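Ticket #4471: structure export looks truncated?
Reporter: QA, pipeline team
Priority: medium

Steps to reproduce: submit the single chain below to the structure queue and open the exported record.
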Amino acid sequence: MPPLRPADGRTLAAVGTRWAEMSIGPRSLDRASTTIASALGGMATEANRWWAGMRASPRGLWEDLPFSVDSDRVRSARITSTYQRLERLALAYATPASPLGGEPRLLADVIDGLDWMHRHVYNAEADGAGNWFDWVIGAPLALNSTTMLLRNDLGPERVERYMNAVERFAPAPSRTGANRAWICAVVVGRSLLLGDESHLQGLYRELHPVLDTVDSGDGFHHDGSFIQHHRFAYTGGYGRALLLTVARLVYVLQGSPWQLPDSLGQLLAERCRTTFEPWIFRGSLIGAVRGRNIARRNQQDRASGADVLRGMLWAAEAAPDDAARDLRAAVKGSLVWHADELLTWSYGGPVPGNDIGTIARTEALLAEDQLPARNPWAGTHQFRAMDRMVHHRPGFAFAVAMSSSRIARYESINRENLRGWHTGSGMTQLYDSDLWQYDDHFWALVDPRRIPGTTVAIRSLPEAHEAGEVATNDWAGGTAIGDVGATGMVVDGGPGGTTAVKSWFTLTDVIVALGAGIRSDSGRPVETIVENRKLTAGRGELLVDGHALGDGLQRFTNATWAHLSDGQSHQVGYVFPTGARLRVEQGTRTGRWSDINQHPSMADHEVIERSFVTLSVEHGIDPNDDQYAYVLLPGASAADVREFVSRPSIEILATTSGVQAVAAGSTQAVNVFRRGTFGIGGRDYAGPISAVRIAGEHGERVATIDPTWRDGSATSTEPT
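Actual output as written to the record:
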C-alpha cells in the first residue's frame, strides 16, 4: 500500500470518524432524551447477552456457532454471524453514552475474539468454501465496522492483518445491484482503514452503475422496477439493502476529497420517490416485492419498511434541498403510523439496523415543526418490468404479484422461502387499517396452498418446487390513468397445475377481480382464493349473505356477498356479482418459521399460532373453462356491502378466456388476451392489449399497452 502523508492521515481519520458516528451517533447526541436513553439501554442489553455467552474454544467463540461442521455453507454462515456478534459488542463499547461504553474488559474480549477469528477462520489463506456471500460481503461488512469502531485500540498491525483478509476476498467492486453496492461499501471501509486512496478516487465509476437505469436484468428499470438475480422483483429485498448502503456511503464521503457528485444524490432521491415510496403503506413494506425475504422472521413488513424509511432519511442528507425536504416529509408521513421501529435500537447485519445515529436523526425529524408530513402518492402504479402493480388510496393499498416469461414465480435459495410456490402467480395483498396484518407471523402461518388472488389446484408441493422458473406466458402487466387501472395475467400451469386468465381492475375505491378459462387435469380440487386473512385481534366477525359464521369449515352454493370485521376499525367487503360456490374456513393455524426458512442463521423453531379466515371460490376437480368474479370493497361496512349488491357501481362487460372488461360510469378498463379486434362497450380493442379509457366533459383520456412486450410499446393519449 502507498505510504500515507500526514495530511492524508488526518483526512482519512476524519472520514472514518464520520463512518463510525453513523452508528454510534454524533458528538452532539442528546443524552438527556428518553428515546436515546432507551435505545442505548436496548443496545447494552443485547450486547450483555452476547458477551455473557462468549466462550472461546477450539470449536468457535459461541457454543451455538461452532465451526466444526460438515456443511461448508453452514460454516460460512457462522463466520458472518460470529463477526456480527463481535460488531454488536464493539458498538456497545465504542458508543460513549452506552452503559458499556469504554468498558476495558469488553474491549479485551472483543479483540481476543477478532484475533481468534483471524487465526483460525478468516484470513488471507482461507479457502472461501461455502456461500460466497459470507466471505465477500457478510463477514467483511461486520469486520470492517468493528475495526472502524475500535481502530484506535487495535493498532495499525492488527488493522492491516484483518484488512488483508478482507482484500483477499473483496479486492475490488464486482457483481451487480445490491451485491455490488455492498462490495463497494466493503472496499471503501477497507480503503479508509488502510489509507488506500486508489479505490476511493474511483468510487463514483464503480458505484454509479448500481443506480443507473437498465433495459434488462439486475437493477433499476425505466418504470421504477428493481430486479435482482436477473428475474425476481426485489425492491423490498435487495433493493432496500442497496438504498441504505448507497445512501450511507454517499453521506460518509460528503465534504471529503472523495465526495461523490451531487448528481448521484439527486438520482438517489429520485429512486426513493419512484421505486421505493410506492411500495410503502403506513410504514410497512409490501410483501409482493420482498422476494424470499418474506420468509425471514426478522424482516417482516414493518421492519423492512423501517429499513426503507431509514434509507430515505440518509438519502435526504445527500439530496438537493428541495428533494431532501420532500424525502423527509415523506418519511415523516409514515412515522405517523410507524415511529416505534425507527426510535428503537436494532441491529441489522448486512442491511444497517436502527442504530443510534439514525435514531437521533429520526427524533430530530419528528421535532421539526416547520416541516409538514407528506401523504403518500395515490393512484395505480404499474411496474411492468417486474410484473407488479400497486394501487394506493388514502385508506388502503392493494398489490398484485405476477409472473411471465420474463419474471420468475418465486425465489427459494439457501433453504429460504421453501413454500413460496404461488406468491408470484397472481398473489394479491390488501393493506388497510389492520397495520399488523402481514406482520406478526403471517408468512410463517398462512396456508401456502391458499394464497389470496391465486387460482390453484389445492395440494401440498415439495419444498422449493419449481423455484426460480419463469412461466411460458408472455401476457402479464397492465396500464393505468390516475387511480384507475387494468392489470392481468395468463396463468400457464405452474406449481399448481392450473391454467387461467385473470384480471384485476382498480377503480378508485373498488377492486374487481375476474377469472376465466380455468382448467386443470391435476385430479385435485381447484380454488380461487379470494382472501386468507389473519385475525390480528384474535377474532373476527364474519358474515356471508347476512349470516354470522363461527370457527370451522362451511360451504355456500350461491353466495352473493361477505363481510369481515375485527369489531374495531378494520373491515372489508366481498361481493360475488354472479354468485359463487364459496368455501369459508375460520380457525387457528399453528407453525414455525423454520417450516419456510431453514437457513443456518434464520431457522426459528418456536411454535406459534394465530387465527385466520379463508374465503375461496370452488371450481371442482379438473374444471374445464370455469370462471369467477368478485369485488373487493376495502373499508366498507356490512351496510355498504348490501347497498353495493343492490346498486352496484360497476358493470362487468366481458369475462371470457379472450377478453375481460369492466365499466364504472364513463370509465372502461379492458384486458384482451388474444390477437384480433374485439368490440367491448361500444369500443373496438385490438389485442393483445390492456387499456383504460376515461371520458369526461373535456375529452377522453386513453392509456394502452401490449402486456406481452412483443413490440415493447406503451402509449397514453391525453385530452386535447
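Status: closed, not a bug. The export was complete when the record was re-opened. Leaving a note from the reviewer for reference: The two ends are 65 Å apart (CA to CA).
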